[in-house]
Write a structure and sequence with these properties.
alpha+beta; 5-stranded mixed sheet; two-stranded antiparallel ribbon; 5 helices
Length: 196
C-alpha cells in the first residue's frame, strides 16, 4: 500500500490473538527487518505510555485532532462538554498515548452494552509507525472485553488512506455487506473538516 508516496504495510502480517484469560494482543509476523526493529524497539514503550483518557486530557486531545488533515470535528459532540458526557458514560474505555510529556495519540471508545465503537482514532503524524496506534487499539479492546463486550466497530472515511491501511494491516475486516446510515437530530452540531 502507498500513502503519500511512501510504501507502508507491504509484506507486513499482523496477528490479533486472544489469550485464555481474555487479553488481546497484536503481534507482527513478517515484514522488512527495519520495520521489525522499529516495531520491537517501540512496542514495550508504546504499551507503557498508553492510559485511560480523562477529561483533563481534553485540551491536548483537541489540539491533536486539529493537527490532522481531513479530521472531522463536530461543534457539540467534540466540545469539552460533549467529550465529558461521553467519558462519563464510558469512563474506562477511551485511551490516550503520552510521549515527550504530551498527548500524541487518542481514541474515544465506548459501548452501548452490546457493541463497542471507536471514534476519532488518531496518532500525531510525527509519532506514527512506532506501534502507538496498535497499542491504543489493544488497550481499548481489552477495556471493552472487561466490560463484557464481544464486538467492536468503527467508521473510517473512504478518503482516509492512512487510517484504512492501518485497520487492514492490524487485521480488521471491512464490511462489504451493509450500508451505513445516520440521521442528524441536532442541526446545530455542525461538522467541519480540518484542511491544513
Amino acid at each position: 500500500f502507498y500513502v503519500d508516496g511512501k510504501e507502508i504495510c507491504q509484506g507486513y502480517v499482523f496477528t490479533i490473538k486472544q489469550s485464555r484469560d481474555g487479553e488481546i494482543s497484536v503481534t507482527d509476523q513478517t515484514g522488512p527487518d527495519c520495520y521489525k526493529y522499529l516495531y520491537t524497539e517501540n512496542k514495550r514503550r508504546s504499551r507503557d505510555m498508553v492510559r485511560t483518557m480523562t477529561i483533563g486530557d481534553y485540551e491536548e486531545v483537541s489540539l491533536l485532532w486539529h493537527k490532522i488533515k481531513g479530521f472531522s470535528i463536530r461543534s457539540i459532540d467534540d466540545s469539552k462538554e460533549g467529550v465529558a458526557r461521553f467519558l462519563r458514560r464510558n469512563p474506562d474505555t477511551s485511551v490516550v498515548a503520552v510521549e515527550d510529556s504530551r498527548v500524541v495519540g487518542a481514541i474515544l471508545c465506548g459501548h452501548d452494552g452490546r457493541r463497542g465503537c471507536m471514534y476519532h482514532v488518531c496518532v500525531d503524524p510525527a509519532y506514527r509507525m512506532r506501534g502507538i496506534g496498535k497499542s491504543m487499539v489493544v488497550f481499548a479492546m481489552n477495556a471493552l472485553k472487561k466490560e463484557g463486550i464481544s464486538k467492536v466497530s468503527l467508521i473510517a472515511f473512504t478518503k482516509n488512506d492512512v487510517g484504512n491501511t492501518f485497520w487492514r494491516c492490524i487485521g480488521w475486516t471491512k464490511r462489504e455487506d451493509l450500508n451505513y446510515y445516520d440521521f442528524v437530530l441536532n442541526g446545530e452540531n455542525i461538522e467541519r473538516f480540518i484542511t491544513y
